[in-house]
Design a protein that fits this description.
heterodimer, A: 283 residues, alpha+beta, six-stranded antiparallel barrel, six-stranded antiparallel β-barrel, 12 strands, 27% strand, B: 162 residues, mainly alpha, 72% helix, cell membrane (chain B), Rod shape-determining protein MreD (chain B), cell shape (chain B)
């Protein structure tokens, strides 16, 4: 019989090393910048596995899209045309409004708003840790994604980039219990902070005084304070307000505008970069 | 056909990588809640079968890879898997002589400890509440163990991994 642990350090020593390494990684994670560099290499290393796990799903999607009947395609096409017509009517108005807004802002002497660079990303259908709300997307540092980057979908704010690999990144959603976003109430510009609870359909507003003017149904939009999320994107809608004087603050909950449990295509924003319109290239 | 691979390292690494893929494979929400702890099961098998080759070191490495794949706090799975494989490598002679269902119970206990450690780590980083569904993977892992054991033993003998 072979000597069982003939080579290398003894089993006990290995365990001690493994435990110490794990504990120090757990302690250093999120605090040391070197760890995020290490994480970048590791996520790049494991990204082939993510592509592999995603492959059956994407093959299925591909098949469904390519085997659609002619009838369905025609129907969808006409529906999209209709939508495009309605949108273009609204856009005509928007151009005029933007011009007007710019003039008014110049009159007031406040800074001008510029449109920001955007990129569409697709969500990988891979499983994530059950104790947090995250998704993996197919854009990484090669596409210019960076940690802390705001992420939207067609409804509203979804979250921010938490980890970047070379071709994939991980997005932490606004519903995660460690995520907070500064907002203001669209109706009266009262500021607040929205924090996740770990559930996809429930957010809480922190530190709202009992006397604050806030009602059920109020739309909360990103306030742009903190400099991470650009101003004015819809975040959530207030679902309940409880003013129990035995608590120091009113208990306010809200529901995210974006449906966090059925994300497919996301929009990455570069708030500090000037837009190079995608549509120009297409025309 | 000569199927004898050099040391069979490819078989061991391949089975562990496949377990990692199964861990992140998309599933309907109900099936996902019952998802067995694949990597832990495969690691425990190899530790019991070949404790001189697969033990704490491999467990730590694959735990770390799973941490990155799941976006869990770095080091949680690594710590848990290292501890589990330490126990199995230390007692491999005793555990090998257990019957399949006794082993299955043992795997269940290890799995509960693993789930509790994960919960404890998540609890340290943010406030989450303990709920019964962390036990669902334990049940499915216990049911899966005998089949996985027989399958991996067959593979190990076929490719003569020693």
């Amino acid at each position: 019989m072979k000597p069982i642990f003939g080579r290398g350090p003894s089993l006990q020593l290995r365990l001690v090393i493994a435990v110490l390494l794990s504990l120090s990684l757990m302690a250093a994670d999120k605090s040391l910048p070197q760890v995020s560099q290490f994480k970048f290499y590791l996520s790049t290393l494991v990204s082939p596995l993510q592509y592999l796990a995603n492959a059956p799903q994407s093959a299925l999607t591909w098949a469904v899209e390519h085997l659609k009947s002619r009838q369905k395609l025609i129907e969808e096409n006409s529906k999209l045309r209709e939508q495009a017509l309605i949108d273009s009517a609204e856009l005509q108005l928007l151009a005029q409004l933007t011009q007007e807004n710019l003039r008014l802002r110049q009159l007031l002497g406040s800074s001008e708003r510029s449109s920001v660079r955007k990129m569409v990303a697709e969500v990988f259908s891979v499983n994530s840790d059950q104790y947090s709300l995250q998704v993996v997307i197919d854009k990484g540092s090669f596409d210019g994604a960076y940690v802390g980057q705001p992420v939207l979908d067609h409804n509203g704010v979804v979250g921010q980039v938490d980890e970047v690999g070379s071709t994939t990144s991980r997005v932490i959603l606004i519903g995660d219990s460690v995520h907070s976003i500064p907002v203001r109430i669209h109706r009266n510009d009262v500021r607040a902070i929205v924090t996740g609870t770990g559930e996809v359909d429930k957010l809480v507003l922190q530190y709202v005084a009992h006397s604050t003017d806030i009602r059920i149904g109020d739309l909360l939009i990103s306030s742009g304070l903190g400099g991470r999320f650009p101003e004015g994107y819809p975040v959530a809608r207030v679902t309940s307000v409880v003013r129990d004087e035995s608590f120091p603050f009113a208990q306010v909950t809200a529901r995210p505008i974006a449906e966090l449990d059925r994300l497919r295509y996301l929009l990455l924003l570069w708030p500090n970069a000037i837009d190079q319109p995608l549509s120009e290239g297409a025309n | 056909m000569n199927l004898q691979l050099p040391n069979g390292r490819i078989v061991i690494i391949g089975s562990l990588l496949l377990a990692l893929v199964l861990t992140i494979m998309p599933m309907p929400a109900i099936a996902s809640a019952w998802r067995p702890t694949w990597v832990l099961l495969v690691l425990l098998y190899w530790t019991m079968a070949l404790p001189h080759r697969v033990n704490v070191g491999n467990a730590w490495l694959f735990g770390l890879l799973q941490d990155v794949l799941l976006g869990a706090p770095l080091g949680v799975h690594a710590l848990s898997y290292s501890l589990a494989c330490y126990i199995f490598a230390l007692n491999f002679q005793r555990f090998r002589n257990f019957s399949l269902w006794q082993q299955s119970l043992l795997v269940g206990v290890t799995c509960v400890l693993h789930q509790l450690l994960r919960f404890w780590a998540a609890y340290l980083f943010d406030d989450v509440s303990l709920s019964y569904w962390i036990l669902l993977p334990v049940v499915s892992s216990m049911v899966l163990w005998p089949w996985l054991f027989l399958l991996l033993r067959k593979i190990r003998r076929r490719f003569k991994v020693r």
